[in-house]
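=== RUN LOG ===
request id: a7f3
mode: sequence -> structure
chains: 1
length: 153
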Amino acid sequence: MDETVRQIGELLLGSVPTIIYMLLLWGAYAALVHRPLMRVLKERHDKTEGAIEKARADVAAAAARTSEYEQRLREARSAVFKAQEARRQRVAQLRADAVAQAKGKAHAQIEQARQAIESDKQSAQANLQADSGRLAAEIIRTVLKPVAAEAGQ
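=== RESULT ===
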């Protein structure tokens, strides 16, 4: 067993330079190859996957802005429709007021016309009464004149 331990010791002692060379090689690989390779891979990821993720984030932000724009557009349309409805109601009220005013004027004119017709009727009746008395006297005179002329002869 001593021989085995001695051989293992020699092997370990002989492998020390190899271990040192391996550590130096690993350090050189890490410094010369691995770190630059990781940097390039990170840049590549940033340019490809990162760009895709950024594009997704931009699309989500655009969708949010579009949703907000559509909401504002709906609110603006609603405000326009409310304003139009208020204007329609105001115009309808003005129209109703104008119709009521026109009806009132028409009724006033009709009443004035009725009064004028009544006044004309009364003056015509008064004229007819006066003319009827005069015409009745003239008719009597005309009818009695030939009778009086015959009686006087």
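=== NOTES ===
The CA atoms of residues 72 and 101 lie 43 Å apart.
The chain has a mean pLDDT of 90.
=== END ===
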